[in-house]
Amino acid sequence: MTLDIIDPPQLHPVLKSLGFQNATPIQQEAIQILARGESVLALSPTGSGKTLAFLIPLMERLNAAEATTQLLVLAPTRELGAQIAQVATQVAQCLVQSDGKHLQVRGVFGGQKAETQKAEILKNPAVVVATPGRALELIEQEVLKISSLKAIVLDEADLMVGMGFEAQVKMICDRLPNRVQAALFSATESEGQSRLQNRLVHRGTRVDVRTSDALSIGSYSGSQNPVALHQVSLVPAGIGRIEALGELLGHIASETQSGIVFCETRESVQKVAEFLQAQGLSAVGLSGELGQIERATILRHFKSGGIKYLVATNLAARGIDVSELSVVVHFELPSTQQEYLHRSGRTGRAGRSGWTISLCTAQSKKFLSDLLIGTDIRLSVFKPAEAIASSSTTSQSVVAAAVREFTKIHINRGKSSKLRPGDILGALTQQLGLSRDDVGGIFIFDHFTHIEVAEAHAQSVLKRLAAIKIKNLSVKASEASVLAAPRARGLSTR
């Protein structure tokens, strides 16, 4: 099945104003349905352009002259809510009405000061974006008045149910006025979500664009053939998972602009973030115990490119939308298919290429394969040379010319000796006369280091290392038991 993309002349004016040249499948279908005043149940992957698919048609039907709240958007997390509110503000700027008035947009989320939010909501903004708990609290206090509500949106409805918000959402639904237009958007379906569907959109139009063809259509110029690549990186025998992560990130360093490393617990987040920082990588941990201001600051720096790797739990990463996110790494596998899809949906957004790598043992690889049964995802084994070749920004001919054979050398000094990559690189180039291109990855662990050296120089380096000192330390060198795969220059961790 091939879905036709709307030609630019037919593109919705707001999409065009926001810089889009094409509409995604969910935008093509949902905008038309909602513009007619109908309710909709939309099943669409994370990152497919659904936020604009519901905001544009619903906000077009609002009246800025009315001092009432007319549209309520519920989101499962404050990060996702803040993102939606930001997009809604952009849409409002494109919808200046004939009298020159703008639709006012406000966000109210748990974890923030309620008094400040109350003052804003008492001004009766036309659009309110909220987390379910805070919305219900303000409705019960008669601060958020929904008697004039024209439409309600449940975004990421499957997550709302999974995170325990079903009861709160139902209580909000019980207070809605009659004949409210409803839109329920979700990436997957579940039993709890079906109960919400029956309450809100049982007579609505069902739209499902979760097919692989739908995923392959881009929203931006130059993004007509995005690649959704799902790979498994096997943890080598005799090496820890966290060390394997360091080597993996070293292999993909030059192909990675920014990435998210997913962990299952706060403890893992802290441990992984500290490890990556010790390796000289720009990495910060994001987990639930951080305050809202600190979380917002971290996300702002990550989105602006000031942080390369965000290490996060599932909950902490909800709603993160970084258009140029290169890779998602599952340091620890999720327990459900739904979580895998939502994690992986952080990359490959809005038609751009996406890359997901799962760190697995032989046993957990089988678990992951079983977890993805019923999806269109096909797993391949990560290999450094293949990783470079798969990049949409690197030509095959350049990759073929750049690939060199490297041998991995083990030395008996590591972080406990306060070694840094620069210390080792300096010794190899200044004392042993190697060129910068003769050295691949430098992976420093607690008590040892692995260095990738061009195969042609490996034996010479092994013999000569014992005669020099690195940072005034004598070292013992041997060939590592796990050899480095062929790789291109520029992929080392510095």
What do you see in this structure?
The chain has 494 residues and is an alpha/beta fold. Helices cover 37% and strands 19% of the residues. The protein has three domains: 8-215, P-loop containing nucleotide triphosphate hydrolases (Rossmann fold, 3-Layer(aba) Sandwich); 228-394, 3-Layer(aba) Sandwich (Rossmann fold); 402-488, Alpha-Beta Plaits (2-Layer Sandwich), CATH 3.30.70. The strands form five sheets. It has a seven-stranded parallel beta sheet, with helices on both faces. It has a seven-stranded parallel beta sheet with strand order 10-11-9-12-13-8-14, with helices on both faces. α8 (166-174) packs parallel to α9. The longest helix is centred in the first third of the chain and has 17 residues, at 78-94.
Question: What key attributes describe this structure?
Answer:
3 domains, seven-stranded parallel sheet, alpha/beta, Rossmann fold, 22 strands, Alpha-Beta Plaits, disordered N terminus, disordered C terminus, 19% strand, 494 residues, 37% helix
Which helices and strands occur, and which strands form pairs?
Layout: H1 13-17, H2 25-35, E1 40-43, H3 50-60, E2 71-74, H4 78-94, E3 105-108, H5 114-121, E4 127-130, H6 132-140, E5 151-154, H7 157-162, H8 166-174, E6 181-186, H9 191-200, E7 205-208, H10 212-215, E8 228-234, H11 241-251, E9 259-262, H12 266-278, E10 283-286, H13 292-304, E11 309-312, E12 327-330, H14 337-344, E13 354-360, H15 362-371, E14 379-381, H16 384-390, H17 396-402, E15 403-404, E16 406-411, H18 421-431, E17 439-444, E18 449-454, H19 455-465, E19 469-470, E20 473-474, E21 477-479, E22 487-488
Parallel strand pairs: 1-6, 1-7, 2-4, 2-5, 3-4, 5-6, 8-13, 8-14, 9-11, 9-12, 10-11, 12-13
Antiparallel strand pairs: 15-22, 16-18, 16-21, 17-18, 19-20
Helix pairs in contact: 2-3, 3-4, 6-8, 8-9
